[in-house]
Amino acid sequence: MLLYTTPLEELNLQRIRELIDNQVCEDRHLEYKRELPGNTSGDKKEFLADVTAMANSGGGDIIYGIEEKKENDEKPYSIKPISGQDADEVKQRLDSLLRNGIQPRLINYQLKEIKIENKSFLIILRIPRTLHTPYMVAYKGSQKFYTRNS
What we know:
Shape: globular
């Protein structure tokens, strides 16, 4: 199941559960993250490095709220939704980082919230395939380029 070829408006909790049930592995165009980026400079730079690497490698999706396997777990991935935060505020914070921390400016990316229950949610960041590469992390004096491989 290729997530990246599915229009973002068609992605819902059922499609994400299918990814997890089928244990679809991370690859060049798909990355799972348990937690949202933190507020430290290092966390922000790591977030921007992940995004620019994917943008420089043909685009893809980063899904926040998916936990990778612990050593003794049967399944490599499981849903661990984000809670205790406001989804709109999260999207605004990520949007601000994306607008101000990448050169040239990354356009046409999309952020989507998928509600779970009890005010918990997942966030999908879709990074488009673009011909305007390479993108560089340009945050607090950093000027680095990143890429992903399979």
